[in-house]
Design a protein that fits this description.
With 265 residues, the chain is mainly alpha-helical. The protein contains eleven helices and two strands, in the order ββααααααααααα. Helix 4 runs parallel beside helix 6 and helix 6 crosses helix 8.
Length: 265
């Protein structure tokens, strides 16, 4: 259904409308949802990999579909379809970056040939150069959606992180750190918070040129959370100061504690 008759065409945009690849991606999304494969997206992607590799690697079109999606558009993606597309993006990024099937498929870990290794490296660079730019935009758009944000925050683990320290790409690190901080301060869901914490750990690799900048940003965030907790406790212990109700005070303290806990696991 998905791969039959697919001939890959270069992605382009005309008058704000996505070209044929967008239609093929929507077909994939519908198949994914209607076949109830929500918990098996990595296996769906792997099974289609050799047949539709060009489509599954068209991250430019996938992210354009998300960033330009508008509820007022006639053929806009639904919220469920957006979530499915983000899951597919994460699965395709993993498959391309790791170069082998997910656990449970293909028996022993595949040994890549020289050609396959070259493709893997090229894909890693392509993933990095594209998502370094668009990931902060995606996080900003879906910042309130815990499930979408949790999946998006996993993408940088597949980056060639050394590229962050080259040329104009470093400015996008600042944008990413701003969005991640905003997400931490806005969420109390542990899946989201732990995904943020893991991202900081990934970017804090001491071998990276960006290590000091990220480590400083993480320290400043944790310090801000601790200061916030101290202020909340002070206000809560002094009745009538700062907090509207006892229930609200307990909720704020609990949420802040969860944020701090996520960074100390």
């Amino acid at each position: 259904l998905i791969v039959q008759g697919i001939e890959m065409e270069e992605f382009s945009k005309r008058n704000g409308k996505l070209e044929p690849i967008a239609s093929q991606l929507k077909t994939l999304i519908i198949f994914f949802l209607e076949s109830e494969l929500h918990n098996h997206v990595t296996y769906l992607v792997d099974s289609l990999w050799d047949w539709s590799m060009s489509l599954l690697k068209d991250w430019e079109c996938m992210t354009a579909l998300l960033l330009e999606n508008d509820d007022n558009q006639k053929e806009a993606l639904s919220d469920t379809q957006e979530s499915a597309l983000i899951e597919i993006i994460l699965a395709t990024v993993r498959e391309a970056a790791e170069g082998h099937p997910p656990v449970g498929r293909g028996g022993t870990k595949k040994i890549l040939s020289t050609k396959e290794k070259k493709i893997q490296v090229e894909d890693s660079v392509k993933i990095t150069e594209h998502f370094i730019v668009v990931l902060p935009q995606l996080l900003a758009k879906y910042s309130k959606d815990a499930e979408k944000v949790t999946n998006l925050l996993q993408i940088p683990q597949y980056f060639d992180l050394e590229l962050y320290g080259t040329g104009s790409l470093e400015k996008h690190l600042d944008a990413l750190l701003r969005e991640v901080k905003a997400i931490v301060l806005d969420h109390s869901d542990m899946d989201v918070l732990e995904a943020c914490s893991r991202l900081y750990c990934t970017l804090c690799n001491e071998e990276l040129l960006i290590h000091n900048k990220v480590a400083l940003a993480r320290t400043e965030l944790v310090d801000e959370l601790v200061d916030q907790l101290n202020q909340l406790l002070g206000s809560f212990l002094n009745e009538g100061e700062g907090l509207c109700t006892e229930e609200e005070g307990i909720h704020c303290i609990y949420s802040t504690l969860r944020r701090i806990t996520a960074f100390h696991k």
